[in-house]
């Protein structure tokens, strides 16, 4: 097999591949054995039609597509390795020659990982940020602690308020007709969360348990469903139940209930210490993130659009998973946020672009500085993960290996070591 790579423009090029005729004939043999099992010819059982009779009746050309399906994946993979390129998308393949007894010739138009021209990445400085623990931040943390230990109490009498957890049935109608995706039963909605279309939650406030109400809202003009965009809709809503947070008092009894301390002052002191430890970690993370962003800003990269699109695919998938943990689906999110997937992708595009840029920059710095993840580094990482997940390191290695995850683990460790290098070479301390 022979492969020739010719860069055309930017990050695209043409990979011309020539596969030996003997491999073509072998693939045609395989294709025939597969196809003949499905062919019916009078006088012959399935799978027993002679090759010459098959070709006389159907033509050898009828085997070409199956033979190509056999040949192309392996030939393309070998050609990519031989040419030393790093594709970032599926190739567009054009078969120039496919004939029995002759070499197969095909051309693959390929988008490859871009060249990174590194700018300054040593002795970088970043904007200072205050990470000190203030009285306000301490009070806010104690307030969150109150919220976490609040008791949800069923409200038997009284109207729904902001902050209440309302369990509702609802169904949406437009021009008197129910619309798809606008119905749910026993849906838990925190009033004031801004989860639903603007104006919906505000109209639930004031309802009593068991009460029903028609709630009128107007969908945004840019709403993804043309049938609803900019139009008025009516939701028939019933409040099934209502729960309200009962915050405990911040006193010594609270400290005894939620901690090993006897007094509120001791709890405050411990909370402040933990906040200081947390903010140190946040400062470390801030420094690392800012240095990576700075190095990426200083680099010259012609980003292929397809790499950003792939990153967006991943980000939308991650967002959908987070919604599932919250008891919501992407479909419901689109329904009540007034967005569709294309609008969500547009919203995430800047972050996706930044993620691709920083990833490519770190990879280039790692190569420039010969930073590698050693077996010792990976073993250390597996031991850390073993402590987190409570499973033996050897067992985790087997899991990673079974799922083809070891290469990703090596990359993660190499990336962390590269960021460690940036911090060590910067004008700031993490």
Tell me what the structure shows.
Keywords: Cell cycle, Cell division, Chaperone, Cytoplasm, Isomerase, Rotamase. It comes from Brevibacillus choshinensis. Pfam families: FKBP_C (PF00254), Trigger_C (PF05698), Trigger_N (PF05697). Its main location: cytoplasm. The protein is extended. Helix 6 packs across helix 7, helix 10 crosses helix 13 and helix 11 packs across helix 12. Strands 6, 7, 8, 9 and 10 form a five-stranded antiparallel beta sheet that branches. A four-stranded antiparallel beta sheet has the order 1-2-4-3. Strands 5-11 form a two-stranded antiparallel ribbon. Strand 1 and strand 2 form a beta hairpin. It is built from 13 helices and eleven strands. The two termini are 52 Å apart. It is an alpha+beta fold and 430 residues long.
SSE inventory with pairings:
Layout: E1 2-9, E2 12-19, H1 21-35, H2 51-58, H3 64-83, E3 92-97, E4 104-111, E5 116-117, H4 135-148, E6 151-154, E7 165-174, E8 177-190, H5 200-204, E9 212-218, E10 232-246, H6 252-258, H7 264-298, E11 300-301, H8 305-325, H9 330-337, H10 341-368, H11 375-389, H12 393-402, H13 406-424
Antiparallel strand pairs: 1-2, 2-4, 3-4, 5-11, 6-10, 7-8, 7-10, 9-10
């Amino acid at each position: 097999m022979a492969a020739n790579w010719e860069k055309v423009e930017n990050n695209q090029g043409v990979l011309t591949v020539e596969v030996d005729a003997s491999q073509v004939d072998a693939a045609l043999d395989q294709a025939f054995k597969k196809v003949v099992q499905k062919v019916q010819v009078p006088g012959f059982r399935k799978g027993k039609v002679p090759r010459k009779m098959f070709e006389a009746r159907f033509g050898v050309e009828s085997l070409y597509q199956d033979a190509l399906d056999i040949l192309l994946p392996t030939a393309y993979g070998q050609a990519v390795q031989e040419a030393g390129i790093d594709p970032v998308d599926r190739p567009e393949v054009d078969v120039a020659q496919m004939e029995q007894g002759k070499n197969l010739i095909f051309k693959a138009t390929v988008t490859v990982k871009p060249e990174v021209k590194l700018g300054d990445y040593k002795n970088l400085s970043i904007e200072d940020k205050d990470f000190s623990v203030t009285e306000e931040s301490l009070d806010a943390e104690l307030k969150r602690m109150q919220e976490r230990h609040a008791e949800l109490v069923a409200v038997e009498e009284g109207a729904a308020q902001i902050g209440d957890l309302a369990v509702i049935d609802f169904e949406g109608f437009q021009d008197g007709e129910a619309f798809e995706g606008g119905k749910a039963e026993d849906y838990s909605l925190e009033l004031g969360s801004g989860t639903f279309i603007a104006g919906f939650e505000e109209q639930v406030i004031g309802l009593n348990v068991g009460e029903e109400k028609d709630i009128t809202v107007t969908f945004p003009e840019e709403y993804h469903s043309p049938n609803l965009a900019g139009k008025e809709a009516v939701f028939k809503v019933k409040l099934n139940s209502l729960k309200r947070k009962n915050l405990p008092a911040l006193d010594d009894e609270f400290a005894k209930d939620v901690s090993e301390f006897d007094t509120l002052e001791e709890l405050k002191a411990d909370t402040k210490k933990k906040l200081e430890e947390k903010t140190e970690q946040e400062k470390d993370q801030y420094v690392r993130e800012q240095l990576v962003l700075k190095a990426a800003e200083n680099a010259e990269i012609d980003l292929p659009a397809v790499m950003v699109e792939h990153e967006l695919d991943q980000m939308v998938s991650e967002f959908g998973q987070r919604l599932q943990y919250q008891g919501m689906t992407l479909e419901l999110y689109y329904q009540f946020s007034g967005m569709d997937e294309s609008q969500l992708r547009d919203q995430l595009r800047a972050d996706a672009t930044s993620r691709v840029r920083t990833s490519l920059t770190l990879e280039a710095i790692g190569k420039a500085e010969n930073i590698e993840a050693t077996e010792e580094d990976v073993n250390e990482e597996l031991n850390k993960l073993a402590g987190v997940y409570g499973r033996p390191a050897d067992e985790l290695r087997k899991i990673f290996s079974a799922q083809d995850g070891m290469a990703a683990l090596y990359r993660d460790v190499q990336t962390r070591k590269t960021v460690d290098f940036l911090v060590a070479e910067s004008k700031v301390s993490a």
